[in-house]
Structure formats: structure tokens, C-alpha cells
Amino acid sequence: MSVRALWIISHEKGENVSLRFSRRFATVEHRAKSLAASSYIPVPEERTVLQLLLTELGLSDSDKSYVALRDDCLHRQRSPALELHVDSPAKGILWPVLAISQGPLILACLPLVDAPAEPRPPLASLLSVSQGLTLLAGLQTFLLGSGGKPDNEGLASRLLMLPSVLLQVCPLGTPLDVPLLAAPATPTVPTPAGNQKQPAWKTGLHRGRAVVNVALIETVRSMQYGNRSRQDLWDVYGTVTCKCEVEGVLPNVTVTLTLPSIGSPLQDILVHPCVTSLDSSILTASSVDSYDGSAFSGPYKFPFSPPLEPFRLCSYTSQVPVPPILGSYQLKEEENQLRVSVTLKLHESVKNSFEYCEAHLPFFNRDQMGVVDMKVSSGQLDVAKEKNLLVWGLGQKFPKSREVTMEGKISFSGPAPGPTDPLCTELTAYIKLYFKVPDMTLSGCCVDQHSVQVYSSAKPRIVTSRELLSKEYFIWNSTGTAPVSSGQMML
């Protein structure tokens, strides 16, 4: 449900009538025009709406006992969903115009009806009517308070707050909530200061302690075959996510990414639309270009004016010389048994401190596991026979040698067939690695806490973090036939 227009009118028995507030939502009006097509009736100017609404409510022409537009027997008034007969410039009927009146105020809105104009749908079937009335009732309580008759100063103060309140409860014409009941006369929502206009995409303003949180996450994918005739593949994809709780209409924040002196330049950089300016050299690097010493290697500065919600500031790819964990996986068939041999080696450039690290070894398209006789040099092995799955928990550290092994035999003599999968047939099998390394990225990219600049009246607390995650990290059985990779692994 959305609202095409909203009006707030003050009156005293039809005298001293004035339009205290009005708001039109252009995006909703565009949808109304598309839905109605040739039967579209535009919302007239405020003075015309005011006159038609007062006439329909019987608050104008007090000296006339009969007004044809309102009192004709063919006219059926359906309060609070009114009809406004528009004569010019576009002739037609605006319906349903919802209006409620209490004390000195009339609150009215024109909801968007997502239904054919003819035949007119019953009011009870229109969700937009009930939601529109809920919005008006909430605004009425917000403006008048629990007593129903605020003083002129209190009403004026709340009317000044209304633009900011609508940005929160009805952004871009779509009601999400109602204002707090019996709201105080003093502003609870900060209003834009000076001549700076609050953008429509920003649904409110932050008020309170200033905090800027920047998280850098790199994910690595790998396809390792253990076969000289097939080249191993891997790629790295990074994202920078921000949550900025900073006061001001359009605060300025700058986040800087840095690389080590021997790091590969970031490539395929994409930025959020809120980034206000960017060095053109940052965007010229592409993964299809050959790398040379002239490529831009940072620092990468991203100035932006943040939205309230968390958002992805930028993403990138990076070329790294080796994957973080190198593996070897071999299976040999012996009667109704498989001999398993696994070696995993942590590269010396990777921090030996994991939040978690697990190796999953599924065995599809076979009977259920019977006897499992396996030994591991480090970590703990769990057997899920009903799933034909071995889970090798490597813990939070590799041993000093940075190498772990698994050896043993598995028989498949269970009472029922195990899980099937078209990917793994006969000796084709794989190991899938799941790991997370905190406070590290494979490219070496980082966000220096002291390089985050915030131009705001309050000094914010800066929180930065980075981590390395695995995604689709496979080590294929080198004695089987692994599926052919698509070749383009970039996310």
C-alpha cells in the first residue's frame, strides 16, 4: 500500500481555513498513472483539493442549505472514503479520499488503489483503505496528543517535525509504521540543519553516540585436481561493508584500503552509489588486463555520505599466487573397501589461527558405510554413516609443520544404500573445506582504523575488522575424473 498525497488542514467551523501541511509522492503518482492508464485522474493543486474536500465534508458554503455536488440524491457519500469531483483541468473523480476530523484539524490522504476503477471494488476488500486510515489516526494522535487539543505552540512544533517523521514512518509514500502515541511537543527526530536538504532515500537521521563500523571480508574459492594435466584454479573476492551511525543530514566519511608493499593491486572494483568521488585510476584495473608495475596499488580512498542501514561500500577481486591450503586426495578401490589418503598443508603466508576449520569427505552413490578404520595426525574425526560423510575437525591451529594427514580404509556394507548424487560416481570424490581466519585477508588488504575519517560534530568510535572465509573450496580425488570447471570462477 502507498499514498499518492497527504493533506493536513486546520479549520474553525469552516472559517479561518488553512492548509497546514501537504506532501505528494512522485514515485507513487507514477505508479498510479501506469495502473490507471487512460482512466488516470491527476491530483489537482492544493487550493482545488481544499475547496472540494471542505464542500464534501459540509464545511463550506454555510449560507447554502443545498449544494448539488454534495446533496444530490444520486450522490452516495461513503465516509471516510470520499469522492472528489474534479472539473478541471482533468475531469473525473478522485476516490477514495480518506479524511478524519478531530478538533481543529482535518487529516486526509489519497491511497493508491491497485485495482480496476470500474467496477469499483468494495471498500472492505481494499487493504490500502485500512492502512491509510491507520496512518491518519497515528498522525492525528502525534499532532494532537492524548488530550485532543494541544496549544498552538505545541501543534506548530509537531508540524515542523512532520517532514522528518514521514521520512521514518512513510518513506517514499509507503507506510511502514505510525508515529509514537502521545509524542512530546519537543522534537524527538532531529531535523535538517541550515539549508541542507535531506535526500528522499535517507529515511531518517541518527541521534546518539556516533559509531562507524567497517568490516572487510575476503572469500577464497579453489578447485584443486592433483593432476599435472589439469591446472588448479582459485580466486579471491573481497567486500567492504559499513554501518555508519553518524549525526547530520549528509555526513562525510572516508574509508581507505591499503595493501602491503608486495601485494597485488585490487581489480574489478565496484562501489556503492553513495560514494561521492573516486580516483579514475582505481577503476581502470581489470582482471582481463595483464599486470605490470604501473598498475595502481593504492591507497584506495572511498569518500561517501552513508545511508542509515548497513551497506556494501565496495567489492573487488585479487590475484594471489597460491591458495591458503594445498591438498592431496587419493582413493584406491580394494574389493568392497576404499583406501583413503589425504594430505593438507597450510601455506606459510597464512596466519595459523582459525575460528574454525573442517574438511568434509562425502562418499555418494554407494551402500552405507560399514567399518571405518581411519587415523588422523591432528584434529578429530566424526563419522556420519547414514550420510556416508566423514567430518574432519582440524580445530583452530595446524601443527608446527603446517601439515596434517589422514590414512585408512572404509568398507561399504551397510544395510541400506547411501545418499546419491550425479556429481560423484565411482571413484570421483572430493574434499570440501570450510574455514574462517579472523584478522586476515589473503590479498593483505586492510582498513586502518586511523585512516577512517569522519567529518561530523561528534567524534565517532571507529571499529574495523577483517576475515578470510572459504567458499566452494574443493580438493578432487586425483585418481578419479573430476568435473570440468567452467573456467570463469570469479563471483
TrEMBL record:
Signal peptide: none
GO cellular component: AP-type membrane coat adaptor complex; cytosol; late endosome membrane; lysosomal membrane
Subcellular location per the Swiss-Prot or TrEMBL entry: Cytoplasm, Cytosol; Late endosome membrane; Lysosome membrane
Organism: Dicentrarchus labrax (European seabass)
Gene Ontology annotations of biological process type: endosomal transport; protein transport
Topology versus the membrane: Peripheral membrane protein
Residue ranges annotated for the MHD domain, each copy included: 209-476
Family to which this protein belongs: Belongs to the adaptor complexes medium subunit family.
Protein name as annotated: AP-5 complex subunit mu-1
Keywords carried by this UniProt record: Cytoplasm, Endosome, Lysosome, Membrane, Protein transport, Transport
Principal location: cytoplasm
Subunit structure: Probably part of the adaptor protein complex 5 (AP-5) a tetramer composed of AP5B1, AP5M1, AP5S1 and AP5Z1.
